[in-house]
Structures are given as C-alpha cells and as structure tokens.
C-alpha cells in the first residue's frame, strides 16, 4: 500500500513539474507556426509588390511605345486594358493581404479648397494692410 501511495505522489509531483514544461513547448510550437505564417505572408507580399512593379513598368512601356507610334491604336487599347486588369487584380490582392498602411486622413476636396481660399484671403488682407500702412506713414 505504501508503494501505491508513493507512486501516486511521484506521479502528482511529475505532473505538477512537467505540465508547465509541456505547455511551454506547445506554446513555442505555436509561435513557430505564427513565425512561419508571417514569413509566408511576407513572401507573398514581396511577390505581389514585384508583380505590381512589373505590370506598372509594362504599362509605362506600352504608353511610351504608343506615343512613339510603334503600336497602333487597335493593338494598344486591348493591351492597355489587359495590363490595367492585371494591375487592379494585384492591388486588390495586396489590399486583402494587408500590405498597405492606412493612408492619412485627408479632408474632402471641397473642404481642402475652402481652406486654401481662406488662407489666400488672409494673405491678401495682410498684404493690403501692410500696403495701406506704408501709404499712411511719413514720406
């Protein structure tokens, strides 16, 4: 009977000591999986960015060739359309992969124009005020 209780106590101690070690090993395995996933996402992002550059270069070259007269209009439009579709597909993939940083909030165009008009009016008032002050001063 003493042997049974001794073995039971030993098992309890081993579980008490061993469980954190096993749990840590499982957790580190999860971190490795996450690191592997991050590496895969980074590789996908790099591939998509390279494809984007390739398509944009192709579009630029196509536009240049068209302007130089090397490509006729009938050939240019379908080629341009195909390259633009590729570019849009790649940009959508990049966006869904979270490759883009959120852009800074920009005011709506109307608000931007109103702000610019207000700044121009303030500059004009300062300029007009300075010109009038110069006229009133001693000559």
Structure notes:
Helices cover 86% and strands 0% of the residues. The protein is mostly helical. The N and C termini lie far apart (120 Å). The protein folds into two domains: 26-96; 107-134. It is flat. The protein is built from three helices and no strands.
Provide the gyration radius in Å.
Answer: 34 Å
Distance between the termini: 120 Å
Mean pLDDT equals 77
User: What's the order of the H and E elements?
Assistant: HHH
* Low-confidence sequence ranges: none
Strand content: under 5%
Please outline the major beta sheet.
none
Category from helices, strands and their pairing: mainly alpha
Helix segment tally: 3
Domain tally? 2
| Number of E strands | 0
How helix-rich are the residues, as a percent range? over 70%
The rough form would be described as flat
Q: How are the SSEs ordered, and which strands pair?
A:
Layout: H1 2-68, H2 73-96, H3 109-136
Summarize the structure.
By secondary structure, this protein is an all-alpha fold. The protein has helices at residues 2-68, 73-96, 109-136. The protein starts with a helix and ends with a helix.
């Amino acid at each position: 009977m003493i042997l049974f209780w001794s073995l039971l106590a030993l098992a309890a101690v081993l579980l008490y000591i061993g469980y954190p070690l096993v749990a840590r090993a499982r957790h580190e395995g999860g971190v490795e999986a996450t690191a592997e996933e991050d590496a895969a996402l980074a590789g996908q992002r790099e591939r998509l960015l390279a494809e984007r550059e390739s398509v944009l270069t192709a579009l630029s070259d196509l536009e240049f060739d068209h302007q130089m007269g090397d490509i006729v209009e009938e050939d240019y439009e379908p080629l341009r359309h195909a390259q633009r579709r590729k570019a849009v597909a790649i940009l959508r993939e990049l966006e869904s992969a979270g490759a883009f940083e959120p852009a800074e909030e920009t005011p709506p165009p109307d608000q931007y124009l109103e702000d610019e008009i207000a700044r121009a009016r303030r500059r004009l008032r300062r300029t007009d005020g300075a010109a009038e002050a110069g006229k009133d001063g001693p000559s």
